[in-house]
Amino acid sequence: MRVLLHICCGPCSIMPVAALREEGAEIRGLFYNPNIMPYTENLRRRETLEAWAAGEDLPLIVQDEYQPEEWLRNVAWRENQRCAPCLSQRLERAAAVAKRGNYDFFSTTLLYSVRQKHELISELGQSIGKKRGVKFLYRDWRPYWRQGIERSQELGLYRQQYCGCIFSERDRYLPQPGHPA
């Protein structure tokens, strides 16, 4: 089973990669996250992932063209519903890369987070997969949340404090009802 795994950051990759490898999957990671702002945060997450992946012998595709304007246009006037267009943008890219690379499945490390909307990710992944002609692999990696945090701390990996977008960064200080922090 060949899986293209969209990766949001190094710490969130640890348990999904381990679980997929335990299933016998051949994995390639994809770093594509136009939502991560500011640039220094984006760079720090990418560099942390690259260093961790090198140690894990995990091949990566890095599509890190830093163009926050596209992401901002995608969520403009929908800030309170920003997660759906943000997730769609990243899953669309993952599905396109998976299709082009003849992967059996695509998935995302966002399914590791206890703060993400799993039902929404699953719905979008299934829909995008059907449209693109590549299967979305849903796994609930939330039970590994604590273990992944502990492992990332043992490894000394940089752990970010917000999802990535300017709104989630704001919400960690000024929480908004109904949105993941």
UniProtKB/TrEMBL annotation:
Its EC number is 1.17.99.6. InterPro entries: QueH. Signal peptide: none annotated. One of its GO terms (molecular function) is epoxyqueuosine reductase activity. [4Fe-4S] cluster binds at C8, C9, C83, C86. It catalyses: epoxyqueuosine(34) in tRNA + AH2 = queuosine(34) in tRNA + A + H2O. One of its GO terms (biological process) is tRNA queuosine(34) biosynthetic process. Pathway: tRNA modification; tRNA-queuosine biosynthesis. Keywords: 4Fe-4S, Disulfide bond, Iron, Iron-sulfur, Metal-binding, Oxidoreductase, Queuosine biosynthesis, Redox-active center, tRNA processing. It comes from the Bacteria. Disulfide bonds join C163-C165. Coiled coil: none annotated. Belongs to the QueH family. PANTHER family: EPOXYQUEUOSINE REDUCTASE QUEH. HAMAP family: QueH. Catalyzes the conversion of epoxyqueuosine (oQ) to queuosine (Q), which is a hypermodified base found in the wobble positions of tRNA(Asp), tRNA(Asn), tRNA(His) and tRNA(Tyr). This is Epoxyqueuosine reductase QueH. It comes from Desulfoferula mesophila. The lineage of its organism: Bacteria, Pseudomonadati, Thermodesulfobacteriota, Desulfarculia, Desulfarculales.
